[in-house]
């Protein structure tokens, strides 16, 4: 844990590869000190069609799905650390957002194959 789901506008592909973006989010989640490296799962989804209001606009949105039980302060530290990592990419005219989504611990199931 966590599951880091990175959603972004496909038009960013000329400025940033999906691999670079995922590595940035992975490194930031690790830097938070809340997780061990092997436990961080990162995936990215590019969107060809997206609007902000009525206008096309570039964005990166990261959802950090974590098991419930972390404090609000820990969650805020995590989102702040990941947002700082995204900001360090020095992308211009890109909306950057990060959120934590709690996974209910007792209803989460996992199987290693």
UniProtKB/TrEMBL annotation:
Gene3D superfamilies: Macrophage Migration Inhibitory Factor
InterPro entries in alphabetical order: 5-COMe_2-OHmuconate_Isoase, Tautomerase/MIF_sf
Signal peptide annotation: none
Family annotation (PANTHER family): 4-HYDROXYPHENYLACETATE CATABOLISM PROTEIN
Name of this chain's protein: 5-carboxymethyl-2-hydroxymuconate Delta-isomerase
Organism: Amphritea atlantica
């Amino acid at each position: 844990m966590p599951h880091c789901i990175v959603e972004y506008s496909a038009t960013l592909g000329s400025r940033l590869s999906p691999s670079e973006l995922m590595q940035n989010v992975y490194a930031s989640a690790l830097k938070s000190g809340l997780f061990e490296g092997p436990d961080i799962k990162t995936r990215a989804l590019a969107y060809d069609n997206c609007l902000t209001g009525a206008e096309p606009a570039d964005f990166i949105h990261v959802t950090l799905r974590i098991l419930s039980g972390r404090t609000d302060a820990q969650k805020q530290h995590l989102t702040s650390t990941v947002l700082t990592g995204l900001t360090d990419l020095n992308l211009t005219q890109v909306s950057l957002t990060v959120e934590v989504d709690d996974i209910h611990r007792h209803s989460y199931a996992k199987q290693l194959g």
